[in-house]
Write the structure tokens for this entry.
Amino acid sequence: MPAIDSALSDEDYIIAKAKDAQKYNIHSAKAWMLTAKTLFPANFKIQFEAYLMEKQSGNVQEAAECFSSLMKSRQNLPSLLPEISAIANALRSSEGSFLSQMFDNICPDIQLTILKTSVENSDDTMEHCRLLVLLLKKFPQLGVDSLVKTLINAEKFFYDNRYARLLVVETLPLLSSLESPRLLQRLVIKAIDFYNSYVYDENEHDITDPWQRLFGVLDLMGRQLGWDSFFVNYSNSLNKETYFQKLLTLRNSEDCRQLLYCGTTFFLRSLYEHKSLKGNHILVEALSDPEVAPSKRRKGDLEVTGISSHQFQAAANCWELLHSNDLISREFTKLANQLQTKPWSEGFADEFALYRGKYEEAMPQATVTNLTACVVRVSINYFQKNYTACIESILAALPQLPNVEGILEPELIVGGKHRHLHFLPLTKVAIMHYFCTLLIRILLNTGNTTDIAYGHMLVLMQLGWPQEEAIFIRILDVIRQKGVFHYHLFTSYIIHIDILEELSFIWNEQGNNVVLDILPNSQQHLGQRRIGTRGADKGVKEDFKQAMKAQVARSNESVLNVMIHFITSERAFFLQLG
Amino acid sequence: MSVSDLKHSLRKYEFPACAKEALNRIEQLLVGRAAPSNKQLDIAMDIISEFVFCESDRRSGRRSGGLTPLQDLQLIDIICDYLSACTNETTKNTIFLSLFGGMESQRRLKILSILASMAVSASSTPVLLAVGVWLQQMGCSSSQSLQLVENVIRDHFYLNTSNQLALKSLANTAPQFVSNFITAVTELYMHDAQGTNDNKLPPKNLLEVITAWVYSNPTLCMSAQLNPAALPSGSIPMAAVTPLAGLIHWCALAPLYIVDDDTEMVEVPVPFKKIKLEGESDRSLIKTVTSKPLTESEFYIKLHLGVLHSLRAGRRTHGPPTAVNAQHLAALAPVVQSYAHNVLKRGGKIQNDHKLQDCLDRIGQSVQVALANGCVYGNISNLLAALDTLPENRLLRIIIKTHQQTI
């Protein structure tokens, strides 16, 4: 045993004896420490050595006791900070380290002091927040409101999403109430902001029920402010129509906070759902047919169809509600300005403008020439009856058609007389179907009653067949009445079996009266020969039959390609329509 | 029922049935709302003598043979059954003290010793608790108590060393017994106040079990004091003496008495059973083998720490200290001084004598922790004065300085 320096102070002498004994026998060392602790109960050095000794020996219970007694004196705290921070770190990691086990063996009062001290002394705001969460999790029942307050008022805290996540996702659910409504509002805004950003973050997936959680925060606030519990109940918000109708009743209340927070949440959620459903669909003006009975689902004088129509309408109506008077509009703008992600700024604004018929706003800028812009221009120009511009846009879109084939849209035309908007998928078939439908309308609307206009309509209606069956029947009537139909592009573009059949039927049935001048080589005989004069000209009859057979043989060809080819080739014709 | 009727009815039974019946009758006589009269006590003693221990015949004359060894065992069995079935602590202790509370009978003490030893074997808590009360009422340092304890030690710590686990668990099941048992045991070893040659060390097995008891149960040493015995009404409870002072003696003096561990008789390690028990995993087997047994010195160090922890638990929340008698601690001084004299006589230096310094350090540690926790009763000034007479030791200086300031 080395000589122990007699120059040492009494405390140091005993510590030295303990440390020396520790090399040989832990029990002996502990006996020294125990003695030292009773001799110098207020001596930090001794208490801390005793603690270290227990820690080194892995004695959870004893170390907890030593640490607890160290913690009892406030003046020890500065010296204990490194250890306190080590404990806090240990608590955050999942594995049951010595320090976290030790922490569990410490009485709650001191646990709280440890956590509070570590919160108070962490310089790093992030660290600060993590510790706060730790504190809240361990002591949800304690007076943590003021700590939340301190934190949320920290400048940095409010602008870093990682903090927000800690606060919103982990801390808010632990809060049962907050005495300050102002602070609570800040928290709600932060929560709205966080979840609104979260849902659009492609890298984060761990929170499975963000909206439900957000409703939990609204609930906290609603209980504080005495709101109608209907609005803060998550499941109520699932029925969008009912929820919106109920929101409408808040329109004129003096305290706009309920409408502001619940409405914003509802708006953001509807918008998010709309955006995630919408994908590659674009909102276009579509058609309605007064001769068909309107759908029962429709309410009001505007119908929106297509993939995310309900979600879009909920968002759009709610957006409108949030701008329905100066007060709510001002408050909403204030709130919206605080959100980091503004999902309405892209796409929704234009869709909303179109929805409200504000065509100038909805019209894409002239410099933008992509497919979407072209389709939107087609849509708007058509409804403004700028047919030339519309057709120019169609022609501009044709070379940009997507590769995805897609299918026909059954809802391009709905029954009724009202305005109809549709979410059109960005697929080749859907877009061409839309174009063909519009071109047929343009041909009708321009009052062009030439055979060539009718013939073009026959061509165009093939893609959406039998969507335009009514028009087809009208054209057939016209042909019957006129008794003659000149359309030399027939063999190039008409291949649909139904149309071919109907025409053959007319030709057979009324062979005498109807002259179908539809073969390209018959042009020279125009006016000289008439097909179907009582077998007088069998050669002509044969020609017709052969031509029809040839067209039927082509009926498996892609109508889509025929359409593209047709519109491109006949551009000059279409352009002069306007 | 008159005495003669009572005796008459008991005489219908042969031994051991009469003993069994007698116990019930004694219970009826002694246990009631009020303290039994002297006459009732006399009758009870008479019945015990005649029908339980068969010490006298019908005419109260001496019976020549008494009980045969086999009958001793039959009787012990009956008493055991009776005590175990007894639901009331006071009743049990009343009967037990009536049976064995006399000072004179060696025969009864012999039976009691066997009974106690059997209770230890069987871990019979009710019997052990009764024995604990008996030890306390007789005085742990009385010759009867020491005789009983010696008997238990002989049976369980010399002859049989395979029952440590069962023994260790007694501290939890019958702490008052264990506490009083240790108090008595400390009287048997290293109890060398006069510096005579009576300085033998306890057997290692006993040391090991006591260390385990004290080390793992810091409140054990106080348990006899904290749980007052349920005594028959009218009897005078004897103060329980904690084993702490005795254990402090042991731990302090051990360095002086232990022959160096190197020269300590090397124990032939008992080979571990090679037979693998059903369900016993290899790992536990290896673990058992690899845990290094402590040396005797190491046991004392561990026991010493256990005692310090017990002293911490000895602080009373109210009332004067009761754990350690100052005089008892002061009694260490002459023993240590005589050792120191021998060191000097051999030409050694006190400062360099590690054994002596270890001893002084432990005395210092014990006294300090005891004083700091308010465990010491009696004349503390005298204790400090006695410490002041001890050979030079820095810890003792610090302690004396500290406490002289406060007195």
In short: The longest strand of chain B covers residues 324-325.
